[in-house]
């Protein structure tokens, strides 16, 4: 891909004794759409604020284009931020909000490059209009901030942040306050804007679906540590540990044993899979995505179990099946009534084998399925957005 | 509130003690002692121009001083920890828990030619020093019974009313808005000039209202600290109701004119803060 633009080198962030970021190493490429994804309190916003210059890491270094910028204040960084609740200037109209960054900065005089002058009014006008057009708000300049809807205010915040032509745009859960429909529209729009202006976007969210939709690279975080870095496909198909598997989409995670390359054992049976490179007899976590499981008759099944719960979800049924005390979630268009005995079939590419991690055994059992939904809705900033898994 | 009945006590109160007196003042202002309708109370107003001028000039000066002292204090206080703010607010409010007259008497004894301040300055040999250098014959700084003392009294008494609204408005400014300005390239000076100050104007406006109005109508201060040399509107009106010059009709007319001028001043001020909330004191 393209060249490296930002590097966090062994960054640690502590508040008193709380470790917010635990030895983070990360590089971010130019023109990349990178998402920091994780539950609230995982350190993702702190990381963004360190890049923006609003916080200094307790230890470790931040490099921008090869230059250490730990001590560079926010107003001297070629980075602009779109804030969670927009943070627009309510005492200015839309035009002045967007023009703020242009009016505040001086540029070299074209006639005498040593002199710094204000950006000429004609150019301010042109660039503000350009930015407003980019976010589909052309002609809104004279309106007041309070007359706009949440979605429109969000667009103003984006226009205001890109008018200075930063090399990097930081976005801190910018869609968190919008309703689901608008959020989906804005996801597509943000991706378009990013491609159109051709700059790096660093996007913070706790919404895995948002991350999968927009990102070139996803950084999954938990408890101040990076859990996995990869493309959306990598993260979904090849999760590194039980946390990632559970956080991105739905996963059944079952204790298994790697008998040999391409053969995994669970429930005392052997299954063919596509994974290799484990020690013979190594204990592993087996991830099976709910949509990779076929419900078949009891006789045909590789495993048999009892249906304990069925929920209609529109496109498919969420079927909870008890396999010897461990409950799986299966997503299929076939309806199986509660109490019926069924068999399941999983193709070799339906298995994903992970090494054991500290997260093993914490996720992936659907015994308390509905309770898990409640838990997802608990976090304060997830209250508005955590409902559409 | 859905239930209008709950508002009745206050509506009755307002009708009895706000609207009725206002109507009475208007009636008094437009009538003569014999009860006939007249405009003579207003036509003689010109002779009281100095009292109007003094009142407004002193009130404007006191208000400006309150802004100059109160704004920086409110601004820096808003950045302090909760503990510091609480203590500071306590100290700011503390004098107000004491009786107004008592506070003013205290100033009298402080500012007097033989008062505490002059005694202290004399005891450290300041007057001797000055006399030695300039060959003067100074025994005290004359502070009491001056317009300066009146202004001091106004500032001392009304400063908390300037600090409070400014503080509460600045305190409510979203820190993210300030971060956004920094993020866009504003240094601290520019953040203040372009963001914090404009956003705090509604607080300044209500502070000005709350200092200017009591200042312009104040009485007693001029008598106690100004030695009665500067006749202010408040004193003038008081004289018409309680003094030898007993003439409630003229007193009402003066009060009415003062009210109109204050209202016009406030209306003009509010135009500056158009669209901003927080100036609803009037």
Give a brief rundown of this model.
The complex is a heterodimer of chains A (389) and B (282). With 389 residues, chain A is α+β, with helices and mostly antiparallel strands.
If you had to describe this structure to a student in words, what would you say it looks like?
The complex is a heterodimer of chains A (389) and B (282). Chain A is α+β, with helices and mostly antiparallel strands. Helices cover 24% and strands 34% of the residues of chain A. Chain A has helices at 44-52, 94-104, 121-134, 150-162, 180-197, 208-214, 232-237, 242-247, 369-376; strands at residues 4-15, 18-29, 33-37, 59-64, 67-68, 79-82, 106-108, 116-118, 168-172, 200-205, 217-222, 225-230, 252-260, 263-266, 269-272, 282-288, 293-296, 303-312, 317-323, 326-332, 341-346, 351-355. In chain A, α2 crosses α3. The longest helix of chain A is centred in the middle third of the chain and has 18 residues, at 180-197. Chain A starts with a strand and ends in a 13-residue tail after the last helix. Chain B has one domain: MetI-like fold. Chain B has 13 helices and no strands. Classes of the chains: A alpha+beta (389), B mainly alpha (282). Chains A and B meet through β6 and α2 of A and α9 and α10 of B.
Total discrete domains of chain B? 1
Structure summary, number of beta strands of chain B? 0
Number of helices of chain A: 9
The CATH architecture classification of chain B is Orthogonal Bundle
| Level-2 CATH architecture of the largest domain in chain A | 3-Layer(aba) Sandwich
The amount of beta strand of chain A, in percent, is 25-35%
- Helix percentage of chain A: 10-25%
Gyration radius from CA atoms of chain A, angstroms: 25 Å
Number of helices of chain B: 13
Instruction: Tell me, rounded to a whole number, the average pLDDT of chain B.
Output: 88
The name of the CATH topology of chain B is: MetI-like fold
Report Rg of chain B: 23 Å
Poorly predicted regions of chain A = 371-389
Regarding quaternary structure, what we see is heterodimer
Please give the CATH class of the largest domain in chain A.
Answer: Alpha Beta
Task: Name the chain pair whose interface involves the most residues.
Answer: A-B, 25 and 20 residues
**Approximately what portion of the residues of chain B adopt beta-strand conformation?**
under 5%
> What name does the CATH topology of the largest domain in chain A carry?
Rossmann fold
**Series of H and E elements of chain B:** HHHHHHHHHHHHH
